[in-house]
Design brief:
single chain; alpha+beta; ten-stranded antiparallel sheet; nine-stranded mixed sheet; 17% strand; elongated; phosphoprotein; P_typ_ATPase
Length: 1139
Amino acid sequence: MWRRRLTCLFGGEEKRVDSRTIHAGRGSSPVADAFPQQKFCDNRIVSSKYTIWNFLPKNLFEQFRRIANFYFLIIFLVQVIVDTPTSPVTSGLPLFFVITVTAIKQGYEDWLRHKADNEVNKYPVTVLEDGKRVGKESEKIKVGDVVEVLEDETFPCDLVLLQSSRDDDTCFVTTASLDGESNHKTHYTVPDTVKDVESLHATIECEQPQPDLYKFVGRMHIRRDGQETAVRSLGPENLLLKGATLKNTKKIYGVAVYTGMETKMALNYQGKSQKRSVVEKSINAFLIVYLCLLVSKAFVCTTLKYVWQNQHGQDEPWYNPKTQQERDTNLYLKMFTDFLSFMVLFNFIIPVSMYVTVEMQKFLGSFFITWDKDFFDPEVQEGALVNTSDLNEELGQVEYIFTDKTGTLTENNMEFIECCIDGFQYKNHKFLTETDGLCETDGPITITLNKAPEELEELFLRALCLCHTVQVKESQPVDEIDGVVLDQVDGFSPSPEDQCAFIASSPDEVALVKGAMTHGFTFIGSDSKSMKIRNRDNRVEVYELLHVLNFDPVRRRMSVIVKSESGEVLLFCKGADSSIFPRVRKEEVDRIRVHVERDAKEGYRTLCVAYKRLGNEDFARVDAELREARLSLHDREEKLMAVYNQVETDMILIGATAVEDRLQDRAAETMEALQGAGMKVWVLTGDKMETAKSTCYACRLFQRGTELLELTVGALGEGEGKREERLLELLLEYHKRVVHDTPPSKTGLHRTWSSPGQDYGLIVDGATLSLLLNASPDGTGSHYKNLFLKICQSCTSVLCCRMAPLQKAQIVRMVKSSKGSPITLSVGDGANDVSMILEAHVGIGIKGKEGRQAVRNSDYAIPKLKHLKKLLLVHGHLYYVRIAHLVQYFFYKNLCFILPQFLYQFYCGYSQLPLYDAAYLTMYNICFTSMPILAYSLFEQHISIDTLLDHAALYREVAKNAMLRWGPFFYWTMLGVFHGLLFFFGVYCVFSNPALLPSGQVFGNWTFGTIVFTILVFTVTIKLALDTRHWTWINHFVIWGSLAFYILFSFFWGGITWPFLEQQRLYFVFINMLSSMSAWLAIMLLIVLSLLPDVLLVALRRPRGRNTRQVRRRLPSSGTSTIFMLSQTASGHSFSWSD
């Protein structure tokens, strides 16, 4: 680590170089002398935060950055240095407890990160050195090493593919941990590399590391003995990324180009920072107010003390003469010392024990999420997991949800639903049966025996079997392909060679091939030059594969050029309707458009299929142009695009397909509930726009009436300068339409479908986002971003497709740092989602099929997306209400506690004499009043769980930190002031005649303080009992038990002579106090008067709003004894109302 940092510090020269030069195999090469030697980082991955050496100072520094911890440290030091009325133990012990517990917790979490890093860095790999296979640890790989990777292994660094065990010089990888796509992607070896990589002499020039997963530019100089050096271009199809997994390929060899923290995966990783909840920020704000109160009280008492002592005879009364040392003490130093003493005396207004209670509440409360049986999923045999208990209440404040698509919203399992051929719709999988097939025509759904011509049907099926990048892996048992039982169509039983699994870069391609197979045409397999299919007559057809025109998001289509056995050259093309329709005859479009629009409304993924016959001269011209474009080193993509657009014209439209991407169970219901709760849902995915758009429709994020606005490469057009101009035009147009011309929503957050206005949805892709975020730095960049953000915030839902992991984090950061600092939540299931999970205020990991990187880096993990509904609407809502009440209650009860102490100074000559005994000062927050509020903050349910689930709008009532705003804070503060004044002056009136016993015995100042303290303890405890809506046996035990403990403690503390005490101020004080009827009357009367406003407020206040009335009807009546059940029931959390 130190070597890497020193390299970054002193080796800055490399950062100024635009490209890097790598010598393959690290052996001597005749061309090596032509390039300067460069230094690169090693292959170690570091995600941990601390080391053994910096843990203690770094952790202490981070903890004492919190205002409360720093304040308590100062108070503790003052108590140690200055002679104060209270012991240093009262502040030191709670502070030590909080610091120690937090340090242990954070140290354990970082140890887990160290452990995960070691698993990756110590992973065994095989490297070729001097022609020999050498075993190494992954962290010892260096740039230029030739690495061997076997099937199902993960690539240890970013590699350029040199050699593959497959005959067609390709390999297949899955990048689920990078971009969330679990489908197989095809990568190609560099052309003209020798089969024996041990004798390879080559040099690679490529760009410096950058985080874009889909871009890579370079060239490779290959030298052969006795031949001229060959130069071959390198692109993303040649680059194997760290974190991806090798599939359906026994072995590959690749040369390391990026290692360690310079790999694309590491560059897309966001370091895990400590997250702070909005409640903690509110506590700090309230703390500043109470600190100001504390300083003001200390300043007022100090000032009045010296004003009073300046009066004649008050500075040095005859009964308390000063010592010579006191007379010689500097006046200002003495004033400062007195100020500090008053600060310590009034220090208890700052609730030191609140932080301990909050930590305990968060830690213990997190177990309720883990224990909730509703979160248990039988498929993964696991329940919810809490990685960070500090953010429980943040679950109740979410305003924006950023969700991944693949594996989160969907199961990534597409199914062929139907198709349309020449205007005839084929449904219910009754495609081509012995009864001529069941078809449906346009208009009403009626069964008819009419169908498309047989020649056109077979041509359509051949197009489905040939126009794809699907590969076959012979690994499945007989009669099963990829887990799907094969149908016997037209008496055809699949032969053993057909027993195989399909793998492809897109799940819809597999679905289409399976659909064709089910209906009589089976794709058998392919190699680099041919493709084989079995037709309905059980005859194998072989086609020569001439060219593949790959899919890209601009064209939104793909094509293949094949030659049949008869020598006919055919181009088959499939793609989005918006991409295919302009390139076919207009008279053919109308017959297909009806079906495409109807399927799209149903949320299906639709593709149109077309073909074209190429003559020999046409093909020769196209072939030459394609080969020339693919060998180009500059503007390769633009040249290929021009050829693609030229050849994909004047096609004949055959039909269309409809494929369904299965949603997660109850995904649509969950999304609808979350939007009803006032949360805005953004979908951030690396998938194609068409697939993601259909998923948004299926999840009800986009409705039929939603007007979609596009900010995509296709909408911007071509040309860099024109794109920026077009982008600004679209932003201004959308801003005017969505922001200016749309009336503001009255409720602010909830979906606009409840209002008569138009709903808008925005679609943006990764390329356009890069243009937005990296716009020219002349001031227009921030203008673009502000316009974009306002448009997004005014839309019902936003879809961001073709996003790199780092772009996902940038989107989250942009919203998080916008005006109002809205609370964000990110949910995903793959390593590609880790960056946005770490960036958001709350990160949720789904225990899906894409590994556990998201789960490990998340704050909370759930098995399925459907569990997010209860996690937010129930747990989040209740946690926030509980902890908000806890915070307000702590400030209130401590103000009640210390205000009589402040008032008492006016009657004791500002002598810093405490009103309460030292034992009461120490145990008030620790024993007498801490357990009832802790139980309340764990078990309170002001609204039943079923009601919270049924009425998602209730979530909005506590949104935007509603219970911890300044209004409720000042209400609790005024209530504390009222109670404190009533306690002190009420008892003061009783003591107008201190002879409260029949014997005439006079009560003193300690009895006065004890009566005040007794009223205080009973009032704040009964106040909490009145606020409790959900009683459990635990609440009864701690509330009444705390009061009983106070009485017993006071009896024993004042009724026994304790030998370790130098002076026992409360000896028999409490017992004598209870022997006075006046004291009893004063205690009961003042308690009733203190709580009377609360009772009247609850009795006279009427519920406001429809939701409140509904909740009131669902709550138990006031006369019902509600018992909180912690039992093993099917209700999951087992929170239930019982009589």
